[in-house]
From TrEMBL:
The UniProt record lists the keyword DNA repair: yes
Keyword tags: DNA damage, DNA repair, Magnesium, Metal-binding, Nucleotidyltransferase, Transferase
Cofactor: Mg(2+)
Catalysed transformations (reactions): DNA(n) + a 2'-deoxyribonucleoside 5'-triphosphate = DNA(n+1) + diphosphate
Name of the protein in question: DNA-directed DNA polymerase
Provenance organism: Pseudochrobactrum asaccharolyticum
Biological function: Poorly processive, error-prone DNA polymerase involved in untargeted mutagenesis. Copies undamaged DNA at stalled replication forks, which arise in vivo from mismatched or misaligned primer ends. These misaligned primers can be extended by PolIV. Exhibits no 3'-5' exonuclease (proofreading) activity. May be involved in translesional synthesis, in conjunction with the beta clamp from PolIII.
Residues annotated as domain UmuC: 9-200
Gene Ontology biological process terms from the UniProt entry: DNA repair; error-prone translesion synthesis; SOS response
The protein's Enzyme Commission number: 2.7.7.7
Top-level EC class as recorded in UniProt: transferase
Amino acid sequence: MRKPETIERLYLDFDGFFASVEQQCDKRLRGRPVGVVPFEGTDRTAVIACSKEAKAYGVKNVMKIKDAKALCPDLILVPQKPDLYRRAHNALLCEIESVIAIDTAKSIDELTCILDERGRRDPEGLAHKIKETIKLNVGEFITSSIGFAANRQLAKMACKAGKDASKRAGQYGNGLAIWHPNMMPNPLFEVKLADVPGVGDNMRMRLAHSQVITTEQLYNLQPKHMRKIWRSVNGERLWYALHGYDIQAIPQKRGMFGHGRVLPPESRSINGAYEIARLLLVKAGRRLRREEYYAEALWLWLSVRDDSWFRIVKMPTVNDEQAIMTAHRMLWDYVRRELPRNTTIFRVGITLADLSQANARQLDIFNNDDVIRQKWERANGAMDALNAKYSSTIVHMGEWKPPAGGHVGGKISYVRIPSAEDFY
């Protein structure tokens, strides 16, 4: 395994991305505290992203609106515009590509690059050029923090450290940190354990049982010990990453297609939640077919007051809307039997799981319906083609009435980059 002797990776994270895009596009919002919310007209939801001005008051992402307003009475609430953020993401990547090739877009607001000789020699100059290119060609209100290190994991941590340092200096945004291998591991020891990629709440509890509560203590473990704590090879891989080795990401296999949504107040009944879940499932089914997969299971998750409800139903190996909707109706029959009629549902999640690729589909010998399935697949193929041609949902099964705030299936996302097809 190779251990680089110099910096080889850049990690970039846009600062307050969704809120800064709003400020760039609307002059009235510039220099003012902004909170992006799922939909307008209600205080019974959460701020899902906020500007640096709002953060200066203590407002945080995923904070209840009433709590955010208590901290910042002048907070301006802006309903989300996911397609705007998707287009901004694409525009920003084009500008960055004019300076350095992008290796991977990790999410809608994060990316990583492999440094060339010039970038390794002058990281400050490279960072300055990237930021100036964005400022001149996109806008000055979209800023970014950049970290440089020997590998992707350390560069991500350096990026976060640079952002935190700029915040402490009263200059939130435009952070920069360069962790040369000859500086390590001292900068790493200043990082909180919670800020180490791969160390979530549950893992911190496991580490605490092993008397590991700081990043320095984690660094000083042995690789086999970390594998034991993680109960997988991921712990050992993290050890090598923290010690500066070139660790490549394991290729990820597609596991599911799903969508979730916070419900507007008028849709928080069982019938209202059913309709939104149905539309979300239509979008998930379209994605399933675009990427040429079949599914064998459908999951439904509901957030209700002080509790949640979850159920799975099995399906034949299918991807057509008729079969998927049949399973969906079965799930909601369970909901109506098991939950009181007046139940308030705050959030719904629907997921197609147990996937197989189209060229590996296994038919169920006890359910000889392949002729029916082929008929429905042809019908869905024709509908999908028409919708794609006109970039709009013009052909559909059942009613098509997106809820308040729209964006069924194309909602704001920190982990998945929406495609244009998600928005019709």
